[in-house]
Design brief:
β8 and β9 form a beta hairpin. It is elongated, with a radius of gyration of 20 Å. It is 21% helix and 40% strand. The N and C termini lie far apart (68 Å). It has one domain (32-109): Immunoglobulin-like (Sandwich). With 111 residues, the protein is α+β, with helices and mostly antiparallel strands.
């Protein structure tokens, strides 16, 4: 009886752990309240990884960098990849925008 109960508890705990881990690897859930874009301004010809953090309606923050749609206001000054990697092209102001679930956030940089 004790061995069966212990096995059940171990299996139940392992299942809960695996479900929790698999949930963390999927897209964030809930309603997005805002998006904050951060990153180090790259020099002309250099690259820098930018990050998109979503503040959810419940107040939690989730990294949505890989789920966001990225855009630049002027690709002649800086480009941005679908993964949020910004490449400085010219020394001029450009706005980098990340959008997720219909909410956008941006940052203006000068490479």
């Amino acid at each position: 009886m004790f061995r069966t109960f212990t096995s059940f508890v171990i299996v139940a705990g392992l299942t809960a752990f695996l479900v929790g881990c698999s949930s963390a690897a999927t897209s964030p859930s809930g309603t997005v309240a805002s998006i904050m874009v951060t990153g180090t301004v790259p020099a002309v010809g250099a690259q820098s990884q930018f990050t998109a953090m979503a503040t959810m309606s419940d107040g939690t923050a989730q990294n949505v960098t890989s789920n966001a749609t990225w855009a630049t206001s002027n690709p002649a000054d800086a480009t941005v990849s679908s993964a949020g990697v910004v490449t400085g092209v010219a020394a001029a102001a450009v706005t980098i925008t990340a959008s997720y679930q219909g909410v956008a956030g941006s940052i203006t940089i000068i490479p």
